[in-house]
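for the recovery benchmark. tokens below, seq after
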């Protein structure tokens, strides 16, 4: 059987070695929302960041950080979530870490991240990719051998674009111009798992992601607009709370 050729939009850059160096990565799943959080740390300096933390999992996550003798330096949200409440504020209060998210998102963060910015994890630098479309503030984080795509690109799927000022055309541009141009063997770590797939590669998603593989921008936009999806169960609680870094937005500051 002849192998499928990669579409033109999936040409990618030169192949990389895929060596993790001193960076370590752990996936942490919140079953209720199917959210995947990412604890990343430098094995030499023990500095760590937690990406897309869930408020209901603070005890689990801080226990793991303690057991691994890590120092949490940042809690990073890839966007303002609609399906769970972030733990960024709670982790900032508990550990003194910085809170970060994409520019134009939650105004409560200590650092708003823009395209090309760098997030430091010990000796490792992660590059911020602006990947709007699911939400205007969506970002991805790219390392030498992987990319955390948040809700922009999922394994065999992508984030929805029918609320929170979503833009299907912008999402197509984000995926094809900023993610599919990464080296083909780059590991893709998504923000959610609904199908039992925790990781993929750029090459796999270029070939087999039915939402976008081989589609023109116009066809993708038409398809996304045709989807009829229920709203996330906790959207009315989650969005206001996440704009306040997970804190109660109605709470008094007196």
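predicted aa per position
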């Amino acid at each position: 059987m002849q192998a499928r050729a990669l579409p033109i939009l999936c040409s990618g850059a030169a192949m990389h070695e895929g060596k993790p160096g001193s960076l370590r990565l752990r996936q942490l799943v919140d079953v209720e929302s199917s959210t995947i959080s990412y604890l990343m740390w430098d094995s030499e300096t023990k500095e760590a960041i937690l990406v897309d933390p869930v408020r209901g999992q603070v005890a689990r996550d801080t226990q793991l950080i303690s057991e691994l003798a890590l120092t949490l330096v940042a809690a990073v949200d890839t966007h303002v979530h609609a399906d769970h409440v972030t733990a960024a504020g709670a982790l900032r209060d508990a550990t003194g870490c910085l809170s970060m998210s994409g520019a134009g998102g939650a105004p409560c963060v200590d650092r708003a991240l823009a395209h090309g910015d760098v997030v430091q994890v010990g000796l490792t630098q992660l590059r911020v990719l602006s990947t709007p479309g699911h939400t205007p503030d969506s970002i991805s984080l790219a390392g030498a051998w992987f990319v955390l795509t948040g809700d922009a690109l999922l394994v065999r799927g992508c984030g929805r674009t029918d609320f929170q000022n979503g833009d299907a055309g912008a999402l197509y541009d984000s995926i094809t111009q900023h993610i599919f141009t990464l080296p083909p063997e780059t590991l893709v770590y998504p923000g959610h798992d609904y199908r039992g797939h925790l990781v993929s590669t750029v090459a796999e998603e270029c070939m087999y992601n039915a939402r976008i593989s081989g589609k023109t921008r116009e066809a993708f936009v038409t398809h996304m607009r045709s989807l009829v999806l229920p709203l996330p169960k906790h959207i009315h609680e989650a969005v206001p709370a996440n704009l306040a870094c997970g804190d109660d937005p109605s709470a008094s500051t007196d």
